Amino acid sequence: MSKKNTPPKLGTETAIDKKLAAQPENSKTAQLAEHTADATGERMNTNTGLNINDDQNSLKAGDRGPTLLEDFILREKITHFDHERIPERVVHARGSGAHGVFKVYESLSSVTKAKFLNDIERETPVFVRFSTVAGSRGSTDLARDVRGFAVRFYTQEGNFDLVGNNMPVFFIQDALKFPDLIHAVKPEPDNEIPQAASAHDTFWDFISLMPESAHMVMWAMSDRALPRSLRMMEGFGVHTFRLIDEAGKASFVKFHWKPLLGVHSVAWDEAQNISGKDPDFHRRDLWDAIESGAFPEWELGLQIIPEEDEFKFDFDLLDPTKLVPEELVPVQRVGKMTLNRNPDNFFAETEQIAFHLGHIVPGIDFSNDPLLQGRLFSYTDTQLTRLGGPNFQEIPINRPIVPVHNNQRDGFMRQTINKGKTSYSPNSLGNNDPQQVKEADGGFVSYQERIEARKLRRRNKSFFDHFSQARLFFNSQSDPEKNHIVDALTFELGKVKTVAIRQRMLGILEQIDKGLATQVAFGLGLHLPAKADLPANQSIPADGDPAEYQSMQVDGSIARSAALSMANTIKNTIKSRKIAILTADGANAESIINIKNKLTAEGAVVEIIAPRQGYITAENDAQIEVDQSFLVAASVLFDAVYVAGGTNAVATLEAEANAVHFLNEAFKHCKAIAAHDDAKQVLDATYFSKKLPPDYSEDTVLNEGVLLGDAGNKFANLFVKMIAQHRFWEREKPRLIPA
Ligand code: HDE
Fold first, then answer.
1. Average pLDDT score over residue span 390-406
2. Among residues 99, 159, 165, 466, which one is catalytic?
């Protein structure tokens, strides 16, 4: 067996461990490489190392005879195959991962002693897994859902996992309700319908009985639930955590990830189409971006709140259904994460990584958020089943980059060969090793929070304002974003069969915003409930006093928060955006080359789409390679479209129903559209041509997002600006394009 196939022994300080300690910045990659097998140029063996001569025929009694039980090669291969599957994650089953690095801009030693946040020279390896929540492992990426955003930092003080979501709040306040929430959103138990969707009775039944979910429901029905790319989502730690400095002083903290490409979404109609055309859309986008060197980047943001300010807010910092508005506590950008390497093996890395928000390092600690506290139990517990026993921390992707020594032993699939007689502490036979570590030397000590309390199953009154922040979120949205929330709720509740549930949900919406509720009621053909019929909180104990559990209203100090609207995001780049060039034989080659060069120079990915694959012959006889035919490509897989010139080409496109459909759909989904002057007749064949001024020009570019011109440099620059806008949402109304 070659050296690269020999895993190093865990728990013993090997030469590799020493090498890693000396080169921490490359440590995880180097460690994984030791476990990575590469079959290039190698012989084929059985698992016991026997060279295989015939991998095509099983051993038989005669060449037409029965297969012999003796065939250990057949048995080994089939047995391994039979046991290839492990249980998928009970939530967040569908995910995509990537490796990267994190570096802090300036030392944060004034608030935390966490070494990876103190040393500006150090690059900490990370592995990130993005996920949807409700769907199974093979479900579509474009489900309307929350996205998981789990980051593992392989620090020199052990693994730190920031297991967050792309929304800053959650549906419930207490971990005890999590199984109920998930049972409600997962496919219904009698017929396992629907897959990866919240648009069904059990979800809305539960939500309409739990007013504490109101704020998160607004987020889940917003465009945040339909990211354009995993690279264009924010991330949030959700709970309030603690940072601890060297002197033991604590501050509260909220963690954020801010994507450098901005926060962008797709349209719901588009999402549903993508789910059919390319259910791996997000996974592919992340993979392709990293392969092409367009490394996704996020800045780590911190909202730091001094402990003495704990009660200064009109909500409870421990309540995970509340966010801290950025207007009250600004987000400080303290470092950058770059994802720069795709996994070598999906199962070994993305599937086997076992995140846990209980993986912390000195300088970071928990708060008493009751959702956080329950999560501290859940992750290891579920991983014991998912990964088949207690030794999953020895799986390469889970191993910390620092050596591990303790007295835990044995169990299924133990890898480490622990030397010596002692596996207990204290011991005198083994020098009392391994030794406990003093706090001053990096030993972990929990934050000594003072607690004086009775044991009881209760929630503080400060958790009962269920609607103010839901309203704050809704009020902070742009008009198109508000329309999308109305449409999403009308869609989801429209799929609910039980009218009483739709009606009850309207009562919840009414308490958030009457205008919102009225519009949804209109779409559903229902009336708003009278004040006396507004739904009560049903999440109360058997002996609970309903009055005590009622939602209450605290007058929030701010009515709007600009940070909550995606309309205010960065719109200055087209890096890694996908642009389609529609063309056919007889194209004007120069216009294609000019536009393609310009877009590519700006970092976009350009594909030529034509009636057939292969090559097209341009007017000047040049051969231009076609990336996809109209049969294979679809506008929903692109951010913008350009129609090339050339008399014959545009005549073909005008008569090509798929080309016209491509443009109609791009218009419907509010994308930037540009066409060479020659191609006006192709635009004229679309439904939206009547929306365009008779001689539309550059002046109409930014509000209409449709450009016609000579494909020269000025034109190309305008097109780039239009694509950077991401979408022209105002176009949605009036609706011009049929479904
Ligand atoms: Fe999780 N969650 N969760 N969760 N969660 C899991 O752990 C759980 C919650 C989140 O890519 C599970 O290994 C409970 C909030 C992510 O591997 C499980 C509660 C947030 C991932 C679990 C919550 C999250 C998980 C399933 C309520 C955002 C995927 C498989 C108390 C801050 C991690 C697993 C990955 C996964 C339990 C609520 C984020 C069952 C009990 C809030 C990103 O342990």
1. 98
2. 165
What ipTM describes this predicted complex?
0.96
Which residues does 403 contact at the CB level (< 8 Å), separation at least 6? 11, 12, 13, 17
Q: Quick one: which atom of ligand 1 is closest to the CA of 163?
A: 43
Which positions ≥6 away from 151 have C-beta within 8 Å? 102, 126, 127, 128, 161, 162, 163, 164, 235, 257, 337
Instruction: Mention every residue, 6+ apart, whose C-beta is less than 8 A from residue 738.
Output: 687
CA-CA distance, 273 to 278, in Å (whole number)? 8
Please work out, in degrees rounded to the nearest 5, the angle formed at the alpha carbon of residue 381 by the alpha carbons of 101 and 180. Answer: 105
Please determine, for residue 16, whether its predicted confidence score (pLDDT) is greater than 60.
Answer: no
Are 682 and 646 in contact, with CB atoms under 8 Å apart?
no
Q: Ligand 1 atom 32: the closest Cα is on which residue? A: 164
Mean pLDDT of 189-207: 98
| Range 709-713 average pLDDT | 93
pLDDT of residue 14: 45
Atom 39 of ligand 1, residue of closest alpha carbon: 164
Rg for the chain, CA atoms, rounded: 29
- Which of 100, 118, 104, 97 lies closest to 26, judged by CA? 100
Mutate to test the pocket of ligand 1, among 132, 145, 162, 163 (most ligand atoms within 8 A of CB): 163
Q: Lowest-pLDDT range, 29-38, 57-66, 432-441, 701-710?
A: 701-710
**Known catalytic residue at 407:** no
The fold of 571-732 is Rossmann fold (3.40.50)
| pLDDT (0 to 100) of residue 698 | 67
pLDDT-derived band at 556 (thresholds 50, 70, 90) equals low
Domain boundaries, the chain: 95-216+227-312+321-394, 571-732
Q: Which of 86, 90, 92 to mutate to test the pocket of ligand 1 (most atoms within 8 A of CB)?
A: 92
| 661 noted as active-site residue | no
Which segments of 540-577 are extended strands (E)? Answer: none
Cβ-contact 237, 170 below 8 angstroms: no
Ligand 1 atom 18: residue of nearest CA: 379
- Ligand 1, atom 9, lies closest to the CA of 375
Q: What is the DSSP letter of 407?
A: S
- pLDDT over 50 at 113, yes or no: yes
**What is the whole-number distance in angstroms between the Cα of residue 90 and the centre of ligand 1?**
9
Structure confidence at residue 4 as a pLDDT band (50, 70, 90): very low
Whether the predicted pLDDT of 23 surpasses 50:
no
pLDDT score at 739: 64
* Ligand 1 surroundings by CB, under 6 angstroms: 89-92, 95, 129, 131, 148, 150, 163-165, 170, 175, 178, 238, 320, 354-355, 371, 374-375, 378-379, 382-383
**DSSP label at 142?**
T
Q: How far is the CA of 92 from the centre of ligand 1 (A)?
A: 7
Among 3.30.200.20, 2.40.180.10, 1.10.287.1700, 2.60.40.1120, name the CATH number for the domain at 95-216+227-312+321-394: 2.40.180.10
Q: Could you give the 3-state DSSP secondary structure of residue 331? A: coil
Q: Identify the weakest region by mean pLDDT among 215-229, 537-551, 642-656.
A: 537-551
3-class SS shares of the chain: helix, strand, coil, % to 5:
35, 15, 50
**From atom 14 of ligand 1, which residue's Cα is the shortest distance away?**
375
Separation of 185 CA from ligand 1 center, angstroms?
A: 15
